[in-house]
Amino acid sequence: MDRTAELLERIQRGDRRSFEELVRAEAGRLHAVAWRVAGDADLAEDAVQELFLRLLEGRAVHRRRGNAGRWLGRIAACLALDQVRRRETRRRL
């Protein structure tokens, strides 16, 4: 099991230190992924914060299928796309 998957498993059991370690280890990379999708640093930051909030609240659960780092990257990209769509909806309204 890779380190990211191990941290995710511990987070799911409520380990706050593992959550902090994951944030330190992955935040920069996930922000870069989200920024490439959103094209905006603020939207990327919002997407990454949403991702970590979902992990902390147990709304995003890694099921041990595939690479945990890629799984986090896909979620970051999807949330960044959601941020772009929300911004565009607000502009239209």
Task: Provide keyphrases for this structure.
single chain, 93 residues, mainly alpha, Rna Polymerase Sigma Factor, Chain: A
Produce the secondary structure layout.
Blueprint: H1 3-12, H2 16-38, H3 41-57, H4 68-92
What does this structure look like?
The chain is mainly alpha-helical. It has one domain: RNA polymerase sigma factor, region 2, helix turn helix motif (Rna Polymerase Sigma Factor, Chain: A, Orthogonal Bundle). 81% of the residues lie in helices and 0% in strands. It has helices spanning 3-12, 16-38, 41-57, 68-92.
Total domain count: 1
Proportion in helices: over 70%
| CATH architecture descriptor | Orthogonal Bundle
Q: What is the CATH top level name?
A: Mainly Alpha
Terminal residue distance: 47 Å
Average pLDDT, rounded to a whole number, is 93
Q: How do the helices and strands follow one another from N- to C-terminus?
A: HHHH
Number of strands: 0
Please report which band the strand proportion falls in: under 5%, 5-15%, 15-25%, 25-35%, 35-45% or over 45%.
Answer: under 5%
Give the structure's gist in a few sentences:
The chain is mainly α and 93 residues long. The chain is built from four helices and no strands.
